[in-house]
Amino acid sequence: MRLLHRGQLQLLLTLSVVLGSLWMLYTLNWPRIGWSPTYSLSNSWLEYTDDDGVPEKVCNCSAILQGEREALDQAKVLLISKDFQKSVRIPDEYYINATQDCSEFRLSRKYLMFPLSQEEEDFPLAYSIVVHHKVQNFEQLLRAIYAPQNIYCVHVDKKSDVSVFAAIKAITSCFPNVFMVSKPLSVVYGHWSRVQADINCMADLYKISTEWKYLMNLCGQDFPLKTNLEIVRMLRSLRGGNSLESEQMTEDKKWRVTNVHQVVDGKIQRTNKKKGSPPFNLPILTGNAYIVVSRGYIRSVLEDNRIHALIKWSKDTYSPDEFFWATIQRMPGVPGSTRPNRKYDLTDIHAIARLVKWQGHEGPQDSLQSVYTECHGHHVRGICVYGAGDLQWMVEQHHLFANKFDTDRDPIAVYCLEKYLRYKALADAD
Ligand SMILES: *[C@@H]1O[C@H](CO)[C@@H](O)[C@H](O)[C@H]1NC(C)=O
Ligand SMILES: *[C@@H]1O[C@H](CO)[C@@H](O)[C@H](O)[C@H]1NC(C)=O
Asked: Which residue of 11, 62, 64 sits with most ligand 1 atoms within 8 Å of its CB, as the best mutation to test the pocket?
């Protein structure tokens, strides 16, 4: 895997723009005939520029990615300007209208409509994406991970605003390999329905294509930290294994699975009724909602009778998304799983599935006990919603994706990250 230093990145950018322009002039009248390494320099038009959102003139992404104080302070000033916020926000209506001409939409939003390498083409990926709001966030995520050989299922919450549903449906209609889930649900926070939304997408993805090798589940506020090529290489190096948090459940979380829960007025509530022990006395482990798993793992979720029993048992627990996948990962016979013995425990830091900055694990730079430094954005339910100041640290981590981003609050963080990934993807293709 080739990771570029920031200086190299800047140099490459300049070089590729100059060479790209020359090459474009030279090849102007040549027909485009699909993927071929000799054509790749002419891909420089696929880089993001001033015209694609946040103007580079007022916001220097290279400097932000290097954590330069001055650039970060400038970004902070921009973020509180109403004019700036207005200039970068994309309303749902834009997507509904712009997608009426799909080829123009794909072109103007610079979707990569051809595989950047044979290696990526030979290793298709499946994505389950669960969304309920923030269409712009979703669309920037989609274009960052989009590749024609991959397949994407989108679950839009049944409670979502009409405009959210219409805009996302319109976006998916522009791609043959992006589709809306066949059975959408109304998801209740902390309830089984969150897991079921993913399972419904998994079932569709499993049925529609036999090609994909690995599945990753995302929410609309995730964003990749790696290019598609880097993701493919990291997944191949797992050699069929899965990579997700799976650890012993701590005492303070046990109430989640010992008491019966029910949904009252759209909110989950604990009752005093005790639950029976898990089926087959399965050890219940703990993890998070986001996983990187092989096709075989998904087959087990859909077909293994032990897992069907676990599903039934999980339906009245609290936040099964934080134990269901982790528990399956330690079940003997599940492809890519590891043994239940605690020596095989994997933390969220070691798993590659998701980078999350939990507020409770943050601390000052010189603290030995903290897991990471303080959040540079803001917190929602104890999770850091990243700011531009988190980028330098973030791109050095091994995780494939990070959670959470919010283009309404910090569009610069997302913009600089997607710009960085696109440079890297095009540079690696050269
Ligand atoms: C952006 O920042 C980089 C890194 O500090 C610097 O080399 C470059 O000149 C800056 N670009 C602009 C347009 O200010
Ligand atoms: C709708 O999209 C078309 C191009 O597809 C564009 O020419 C037109 O200006 C858009 N209208 C509005 C109201 O945004």
From this structure: 62
Q: What is the whole-number distance in angstroms between the Cα of residue 297 and the centre of ligand 2?
A: 44
CA distance 189 to 204: 23
Task: List pLDDT tens digits, range 205-264.
Answer: 999 999 999 999 999 999 999 999 999 999 999 999 999 999 999 999 999 999 999 999
SS percent in the chain: helix, strand, coil, step 5:
45, 15, 40
383-385 vs 378-380, strand pairing mode: antiparallel
Instruction: Report the separation in Å between the CA atom of 387 and the middle of ligand 1, taken as the mean of its atom positions.
Output: 20
State the burial class of residue 67 (Cβ atoms within 10 Å of its Cβ: 0-12, 13-18, 19+). Answer: middle
Residue 74 CB–ligand 1 contact under 6 Å: no
Phi, psi dihedral angles at 245 (to 5 degrees): -65, 135
Query: Which one of the listed residues 322, 362, 396, 418 is annotated catalytic?
Result: 322
pLDDT band at 50 (very low <50, low <70, confident <90, very high): low
* Structure-token match 């048992």, residue found: 313
For residues 337 and 346, the answer to whether their CB atoms sit within 8 Å is no
Average of per-residue pLDDT across 73-101 = 93
Which residues face 363 on adjacent strands? Answer: 373
Task: Calculate how far, in angstroms, residue 100's C-alpha sits from the geometric centre of ligand 2.
Answer: 9
Task: Give the number of the ligand closest to the Cα of residue 94.
Answer: 2
Quick check: 111 and 143 in contact, CB under 8 A?
yes
Chain centre to alpha carbon of residue 233 = 17
Q: CA-CA distances (angstroms) from residue 310 to 250, 257, 282, 291, 304?
A: 20, 12, 9, 18, 10
Amino acid letter for position 420: Y
Q: State the pTM of this model.
A: 0.89
